[in-house]
Amino acid sequence: MDNQSKIEILKSKIGTALLKERLILFAAGLAGTVAVVLLSAIVLSLVAGMVILPVWAKAALLVLSVRAGLWAFWKLAFEKILTGSLEATALKLEKNFPDLKGRLIAALQFSRPDGHAYAGYSNELMEETLVQAYERASGHNFNEILSAYPIWKNARTLGITLALALLLLFIFPGLFSYSYKVYSHPGEVIAPPLGYTLFEYPGSKVAIKYRDVDLGGILTGGSFPEEAVVYYRFAGGTWQKTPLELKSFPRHKIDTGDSLLFYTTIRQVRRSLDYYIKAGRLTTEMAHIDVVDRPRVTGIRLSLFYPQYTGLSPQVIDENDGNITAVFGSRATMQVETNGPLQKAEMVFSDSARSPFKISGQTAEQSLKIEESKSYYIHLVDMQNEVNPDPIEYYITAVPDEYPVIDVLSPGMDMNLDEEMEVPILLRISDDYGFKSLLLKYKIVARGEMGEENVAVLHFSDNIKTEGEVKFSWDVEPLGLMPSDYIIYQFELADNDAISGPKVTGTRTYIARLPSLEEIIAQTEAEQSEVINDAESYLKAHRDLSERLQKVARNLEQQSDRGSQKMDWQQQKELEEIARSNEKIAEQMKETARKLDDAIKEMEKNRMASTDILEKLNEIKKLFDEVATPEMRQAQLELMEALKNMDQQQLDQAMKDFEMSQQELMQRLDRTIALLKKMQIEQKVNAMTQMARELLEKQEKMNAGTESSKSEDLPSLASEEKKLSRELEGLKEQAHEMRRMLDQFAYVKANDADKFCSAVEKTDAGQNMNNMAENLNQQKKGDALNEGRQAASKLLSLLDQMQQGQSSMCQGGGQEAAEDMRKAIDDINYLAEKQEGLINGVDKVMNNSEVLRDYAAQQQIIKESVTGLQKRLEELGKQSPFVAAEMGNVVNAVVGNMNLAIENFSERRRPQGMNAQKEALTNLNRAAVRMLDALQNQKDCNKGGSSCNKPSLSMNSLCDKQQQLNQQTQSMCNKPGQMGANDPDALRRLAGEQNSIRKTLGELADEFGDSKEVLGRLDAIADEMKEVADALSSGEVGPETQEKQLRILSRMLDATKTLQRKDYTDKRRATAAQDVFRLPPAALSGSQIEGGLDIEDKLRRFMNENYPREYEQHIKAYFRALLEKSNLNVVQPSDDKE
Amino acid sequence: MTGAAGIKADDRGNLGSVKIVSPQREATPADQDMATARQLMARGAFLSAVDFIEALVAKYPDDPRAADLLMSCYLELKAYDRAESYIRGQIENNPTNLKYYVTLMSLYIKTGNDSALTHTVEDAIGLFPGEQGIYGTLIRILLDYNRPDIAMGLIQKARSQFARNDLFGFEAGEIYEVRMDYGKAVYEYLRAAEKDSVSAETADRKLALLVRFPGAAPKAIAALSQYLDSLPDNTIALRTLLEAYSLNGQYSDAFHVCIRLDSLGDGEGRELFAYMRQCRERKLYAEVIATGDYMVAKKIRNSSFSQALFYYAEALTALGQIDRALEQYRELASHVEVRRDRAEALLKIGDIYREILNDFDSARVYYKLVNEEYQIAQYNNPAGLALAQMLLIEGHLDRAEESYRKMKQRTLLPAEAEEVSYILAQIKFFRKEYADAEFAMRKHIEEFPQGFRVNDALIHTLIIGENAIASPGALDKYAEAEFYEMRRLPDSMSACLTEIRNMPYSALYGLSSLKLAEHRAASGDTAAAFDIVEEMAGKYDYDYFYPYCLKLKADLLATSESNKEAAIRIYHTLLSEYAAYPFVGEVRRSLQLLEGYLRPEERT
Description:
The complex is a heterodimer. By secondary structure, chain A is an alpha+beta fold. Chain A is 59% helix and 17% strand.
């Protein structure tokens, strides 16, 4: 056997051993692999048994398990087949058989085909080695190196694993089958079967609003979870959950196991909700709790049917209000809406009576009659047997028919009648169901005797059904009231109650009194006296304050001389007190101004004063308002400020300013008082003249009454005549009073006033009146009439004198004031010219020139003149309220400027002196302009208004003419030898003048338009004028004619006054602007325009008609325009031709 | 800083306005008592107050307020005896407190107890021997209480005691002035002036016033001359003398004094120029010319020489020496270096041709020259206005109006603008467009409230308002008269005014009469002027302008020595019957003049 064979054999032998070894290891590896797989299965089963594996975990576990199995197979079994080699086996054999001693391995190595690697070994050696290896190996059993231990070891592990599996199977019989189920469905979660069931509690149902609801579940069976969760969601809300510990709920044994009810309580549920329960792995289906309200009323609709007599139409009240207020006997139908279907509905009355509703679905209705007032509530029972909770208590009010109501809004109090003789009445009436009648009941109390009751039915607008205001003016003129008479009146309002008869409401009684002129005068005078007294007291108070202030100033000065610069506490307090007093007086002055304003309004109402007086009084009121100027107030504030700051310098200045302001205030107050006193006298004059006029009218009325009375009735007139005599005495007392006023006030027209008073005092008309009364008592009609006529004649004469005095004092005063103002302007002008000349002179003088001192002297001369002007203006200010209050300041400023100029020129300070001069000139100019304004106002006032075109102006002028005519007539009669009744030409001329006046008066009457009051007066005057003119023409001029003329003049003056008042009232009345829409006239048609030929005829025709004068020019302008238009039309064609 | 608790800055921390702040002291019982006393007095309860305060005086003997209050009460109650004894008691207790002496003096002055007053004064002086101040205090008090006699005694006593004749010179001067002893007063003031510069200034003022006092100048001149005899270089005395001579009409003497004064200075004619200027300002043109001649003759050329020449020419013009005046102005226009002076000279030449010679063509040449050659508003505008005015004088209303309207476009001085505005309104008046004229006048018043023409505009407004309807004829004539007056056609103006006077009485009657009378008087026809016044006196003596006419008559009469008495009578009438008229100051002055108190130059 060659070596090759040997080696082959050797290799084969070693290879066999190697293969066997590999097989053993593979077998052992397989056992190990099985063990690993089994163990994995056990682990997986345990995991599946312990937890419910989610899919992902399950998949992961399976993957892991498979990988572990494969890894085990690879590592433990398959890899063993591939492991090992002949050399390794050879080495292992050499190790087991030491005699081989490397020969086996060497033989294998030397037998490698790449033997050159062993080039250093000899073949022999190699062969030898082979041989030896072969040889020695042949003696050994190579299987000895093989061991079954690996198989055993892994089999043991496998056994243990199997035992474990068996054990588990024993313990958890279904463990592997469950595990198989779990892992065989790798895509699903496989859970172990449960031992209980779950139901929601209470399931889907209806719950009542605001009640508690239990939500939960019922578990039956066994193995209940420890916790359950209640999920719920209100309508429109989000899910909420409430976990519940189940062991806290009691279990109950039932046939199929245990039963457990668990729940949570939702308090006062208000909205419907869904819910479901989750317990362990069980979740119930979603259940719904429908929350419903308890039955309740959602709407009430009332239909009221009133008794027919009320005239009220049925009324439907859909206001969800169960209160029923209806007149007794009304029928009410009530319809109730509820929130759900009802079983039952009824009204439960306070007396426990019940009245069922007729139910129809969610609506219930019933009808009832309103007969008594009581309360009730509505009782509802729904399908759940729920009753309406807390039903509202309603009231049924059966309203009885009320009395009508009447309020007298105006006058609402007892009142004095004014010259208008009208009672402005404003009533507010109301009744529940309408009125039947409104009555005015009045009684006249004349001369102390109450007359019979008169009843007047007042008709008012049909629009006033149940309430409204009734406004009307009760003209009491026809009632023939005499001064001191009064009317007692009241209103009665009846309603239309036809069932129990009309109910009547009456107002309290009111009195409308016609005060006597004396009373009005007394009241007016008292009011004005009060204002004057107030003003005088303020003046006195201010004087006191001024003295106190001067004293403090003196003390301070003395202190200053002694070196003390500080004001002590007492002085400070004193100054504060002075300032406070000053402020208080200023407040009081405002109050007095208000009083004056009230008095003016009252005078205006009572027509107690003429227009100019009212205007003047208004101006005085303005002066009163302006007495305390803002500068004075500023001075006071500065004083207070200085006191606060204790700044001596500031205080000194403030005190000076304050003192100056006090002086100015006193001047203004002084002027205001003077004006008020003057006005008081003028008013007195006016009032007395009016008294005389009334007296005359009464006497004439008495004469007429005497003439028409029978003899036996004459004594009844005697007392009236006596009364007239007393009234004349009253007039004389007024004259006495006026004298007293004149004594206390330096009235500029003292002479006129004296004449005026003397005329009143001297008249002996009273004697005639007494005689007449005596004769009336003795029923001597003729004698009485004679005395009466004499009295009237004397009164007329008195009135004439008084009117002349009035004219001189009141109206003439205004003219004089205007003239004085005009003169003052000339004075100012003169001074301004002088000042201007001086300024021009100084302008040429050099600074510091000695000549400046000459100019100081010249300035001094002008200043002296300004001082005179100052006095003149001061006096003028007391005469006329139109002189601006600041005029004094302006002129004071002029004097101040001139003093400054004098001082500067004395010191040869030209620029400063010139500035002062120019300032003086400016102030003079300002004074002139102010005076110009005052003059204009005064002139307007004198004219009786602000416009020159007022009819009153024409009347004034006419009055003057009449007065002149009267004087001429009188002159003729008193000098018969010269130009008296024997001079028919002269008389005819006078008659012509009288006719001329009458004609002008007629024209004026046309212009007065709708002023019926004035027209009436003028008509009467015109008639008398005609009589006078006739008498003059016929030469029958005597005292009678003169008397007539006097009467004419008196009435004309009266009419003038009325007109002035009318103007004044119109002027003062504020009216709101209104949009007035007027449709323009349609355009003239062609034929109308073409008819221009007869336009002139039409114009003539129109002009012959009695259009008011002011329209004439408009009519003329209109026709002129028409003519021009027609001319254009005619001319145009010829233009075209050209 | 007595009494000041501290100094602090104001709230804004402004240290520039530091205030001294006094703490508010709480009222003591004494304060409260005093307040009660004051309240009693304030209410007029002096009797109660006396009792109360007497108790207070006992309670607070050291509180001067109680004493003051008690004194006031006594004086209010006229309880002079008690007051006297009380003050004397106080003097005993406080012998060095001058206040009580002063109070006692006032008490004696009130009661008229002169001897006691003198004794008190002596006592007071005796208390403070050797103290001049006490004399001054007492003298001032005595002068304040109008007791110059005792005050003078005291002054003399002080002078004698302190051996100084210049003591209390001003007080002594015042006393002498009151006594009309002007010579002595001058002496006193001059002596007082030597004290210091402040005194000199006061003395200068007092002397200036003194020499202007009616009738004082002659005595002052005598005293000043006498004073200068001893002190010939005393400038105050010299200046006062110069002034006194001027005021007294002694111009030649004044001129000499002026030369004397000038010689005391640098001799460059400064005093002469000042005198010349002063004479020009007083319209003493003859003196201006005399001084100018002197300066020319002496070849005095100072910095004011060209101005002096202007004055010189102006004086020549004023005195009617037109040729010489024109020569001077032409000299100035051609030789003066200052451009403005040349413009002014040309303007003056134009003015002479326009105002005096009525040679409008020549005037226009100069005005246009000024307008074209000298673009200086100060001269341009007057030239432009003069050109426009000449058109008006020539009767070219439209052209004049246009010129004035053009002038309105220029930048004018306020006075010039006012004049233009007024004349434009006046032109409407001349045209008898009364409504427009009235509107323009009113507008003028609104636009130039401080102007010189406001009063004219205002009066025209009134004239139009009063006469446009009532007396349209008179108003037309008056407008014509004014236009003629503007056109320098006096005869036509007179004719118009006469027509107004011959019409039925209107509001324009008085004014026309006055204007006519003034015109007649100005043209030397005093008889015609008197006739107008007489006629007015007979027919319309109630007219507002009648007293003015009367005054005019008196003024005219006063110019003649033989009619002085008649003038005096009229002036007296005016003073007694028309005292409210604004000319009373002038009338008084005229009366003083006639009675010999006024200086002659015021008679012109």
